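ARCHIVE CARD
Drawer: 12
Card no.: 0347
Subject: one protein chain, sequence and derived structure
Cross-reference: see card 0346
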Amino acid sequence: MNARMVTMLAVSALVFGGVFGFKWFGNRMMNQYFDSAPVAPVTVSTAEALADTWALSLTAVGTVQAVKGTDVTTEASGIVDSIQFESGDSVEAGTLLVTLDRSTDLADLAALEAQAELSRQELDRAASLFERSAVSRSELDRRAAEARAFEANVDAQRARIAQKVIRAPFAGELGIREVNLGQHISPGTPIVSLQSLDPIYVNFKMPQQMLAQVRTGLTVKISLETFPDRELIGEITAVDPSVEMSTRNFEAQATLANADHVLRPGMFAQVEVDLGTTEPVIVVPQTALSFNPYGDSVWVITDADGDAFAAERRLVEIGRRRGDLVQIASGLTVGERIATSGLLKLRNGSTVNINNEVQPSAESAPKPPNS
């Protein structure tokens, strides 16, 4: 029994050993085949690192603000008697907008004017009697004070009546009406928004490190997501002399012409401040860049044997962006050829075929196709 068991174990070991050995040998031969098999070249498009001259500029996010803008309201309470405008009207300064009911106030004014007239007549009689020494100086002074008091009451009542006639404080464009005929409104109740749209402000903030570079008179370019094909030009007209303690930012203000009312208060705007100087740069299309946690890189295309080309990954330091182009601060020299498409298929040493029949966009100021 022991000899038979040993024989069976030996046979089993030979069988399984042969199976595993055959499997190992097959895997090894297969790996050798794939390792020695030629790798198919990767087809890429290429571009050269180019020398360019860029104007030095700073970018920021801004908010459009009206030079003059307010919610028209009233100082007096009362019932809306008439509305003299339509929502969205353009008005001049002093244009009548709304009147409140003034019937009681006008009646009170008539009574006060009558009292004032009587006090003037009494003052005139007292003055005549004083000249004949029929009344004392104190009596004349009392009559004069009463006359002035009644005149002041008349002026105050006229001012109260004027408060119930609401006019546009400046020229601009009206918003949507917020009151109705017969409505009782209190002091401070909004009647309609009024905004002066031409010219207009764009306010933006920048870090304190830029304070020495930003000054009044610099040109700014304003772009809007709402109108991507429009670029508006303005000028910095004010720089806040203080820096916010919480953010260490300072605020600047640009003024722009806005004749067609493209800019509206509250809009978000991209601001580019032209610093008035230029610098030489090396630029590549942004499609040539691979962004990774350990650093940004490009694939440099070098000559290999014969007509073949090879790809080599190279870490670079990027700078500013302009349209489809990115500045390379270090890592590339002018004229070096880089891959602009097919980057995900590349490995160090990969053989590549170059096909530049179709190229990614590489414009410093790209525009929509229909612009």
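Annotation on reverse: The radius of gyration is 42 Å. The helical segments are 2-36, 103-131, 137-162.
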